[in-house]
Design goal:
With about 180 residues, the protein is of the alpha/beta class. About 20% of the residues lie in helices and about 30% in strands. The strands form 4 sheets. The chain has a 7-stranded mixed β-sheet with strand order 3-6-9-14-17-19-20. It is globular, with a radius of gyration of 16 Å.
Length: about 180
């Protein structure tokens, strides 16, 4: 029995992103995003309810300021008190977990989606994903990029504009492009 493209995607295997089932999910998410991004900042409770419609889990007091963009939504888990500032992007083809009280600056991109390094495989329309885990009490500065497969430990700091290509241990500070640990 062969796996569906969605099952392959969720397993981190190569999958075809142009699969009709996945395209239907992307369209449903686009409709949800239009509603979410149109919901003003006046009602945090209404925005929290909208997040809970689509996300895998949303802790109390979690906030995402619109505009916000994601692939599916149902692969995203937000802890209590998580804050994402304006214009964040989460490519959630596989799970993306963000721990309690983590603060994420404007324009941050969390990119779990990945592409094969082989040109012929890319040309065939195949892609994959690697989960991203961000611990509790993390601070990510504006414009940072978190790349596929990265784990950021509890209490870490990611500098503004950093490009995080490797895991960051708990309590560490990482800055630059590529991000490097700072003493």
């Amino acid at each position: 029995m062969s796996l569906s493209e969605r099952a392959k995607m969720l397993a981190g295997q190569l999958y075809n992103g142009a699969d009709p089932e996945l395209l239907a999910e992307v369209a449903a998410t686009a409709a949800w995003l239009a509603r979410y991004n149109a919901a003003g900042v006046e009602s945090p409770a209404a925005r929290l309810a909208l997040l809970r419609e689509r996300f895998a889990a949303v802790g109390e007091g979690a906030t995402i300021r619109p505009p916000f963009h994601c692939d599916y939504g149902w692969n995203i888990r937000l802890g209590a008190g998580v804050f994402l500032n304006f214009n964040c992007v989460i490519l959630d083809v596989v799970p993306v977990e963000i721990g309690d009280r983590t603060l994420i600056g404007p324009g941050v991109q969390i990119l779990a989606a990945d592409h094969p390094r082989d040109a012929a495989t890319r040309a065939a329309g195949l892609e994959s994903g690697r989960p991203i885990r961000i611990g509790a009490d993390v601070w990510i500065g504006g414009g940072a990029l978190i790349l596929p497969g990265v784990t950021i430990g509890d209490g870490a700091i990611i500098g503004a504009g950093a490009v995080v290509t490797r895991d960051v241990p708990a309590g560490a500070t990482a800055v630059g492009n590529p991000a490097r640990l700072r003493g």
